[in-house]
Amino acid sequence: MSTASTQLPEGRYGRSADERADRKLKVIGSILAVGLLALVGCFAYHYVVQNKISAEVITFDTSDSAVKVHLEVRKDADATGYCTVRSQAEDGSEVGRADFRFTGHATRIDKVVTLRTTAPGTTAELLGCHAD
Questions:
Q1: What are φ and ψ of residue 6, in 5° steps?
Q2: How far apart are the C-alpha atoms of 66 and 115, rounded to whole Å?
């Protein structure tokens, strides 16, 4: 006795609905991946190329009413701008925030700035730098 095949003949009835759905998902996934890649590229361009001033906190020293912050600022020679620094208390509440302006033709600036606080601060955090 022979057994009958339950599969349809190959290529006779076109693609199945599953194959069409799989193809649509692949196309949609490819479009979304390209869009995401373009978005990441746009952010990277603005972060690397358009950023004319950046800084980092080297050290900080706290007291009851102020935090002294040593900043290292890197900028274009013709750029002017400011960096925002904040300090938080031990419980996480913000006790001080200030903008510090950087001008001149130097491309690398090491500066110690004093951030006045309303209570003893335990941190010094650079929130960001912005060119004018």
A1: -100, -5
A2: 5
